[in-house]
Amino acid sequence: xxxxxxxxxxxxxxxxxxxxxxxxxxxxxxxxxxxxxxxxxxxxxxxxxxxxxxxxxxxxxxxxxxxxxxxxxxxxxxxxxxxxxxxxxxxxxxxxxxxxxxxxxxxxxxxxxxx
Amino acid sequence: xxxxxxxxxxxxxxxxxxxxxxxxxxxxxxxxxxxxxxxxxxxxxxxxxxxxxxxxxxxxxxxxxxxxxxxxxxxxxxxxxxxxxxxxxxxxxxxxxxxxxxxxxxxxxxxxx
Lengths: 115, 113
Known about the structure:
Strand content of chain B: over 45%
Radius of gyration of chain B: 14 Å
Oligomer: heterodimer
Helix content of chain A: under 10%
Largest sheet of chain A: 7 strands, mixed
């Protein structure tokens, strides 16, 4: 049973570029959440998707956007990249109707480096 | 606004020692608290989940406690091993915020042989 999978594992971009990160949820999960983890910090919630809609959003600018597909996989898009966007981006999946009581499962993340 | 704090930021102990990691949170309106382990450059591995109605959870050499009224949780690791070296993060799931988790900054643990 595959867990949460993310791609790519590592990405290098320059300031001003755009990037797309991908996540496939654990089998049986229909909800995907994205987090940003800067070096030495705890993860910060970006947003959550369910039924192809953004359901909740953290304190991140509109440069951060997402999408969820009918197969529950998700993409995180970041436009006009800044040096401060360098971080580990983590995807987590859950079941929408049980998520508040179940453990959250995370992928291994995508390391994004901005030059 | 919910804030989660973990003290100490880093801890170094000799192999075999029992140790306690601390996590505090400012708002007791939570569904549960979850402890994670993170190896360098890797994702998060869930260790223990404590529901707000529970006092503690155990898994092998790990024991986590929760005192919701005082806003505190501890992770006890018995007979530490070098393989326990990692960063340990706690996270709370607040009421009325869906599945969002709010994390502490983590405690970096080093167990010396």
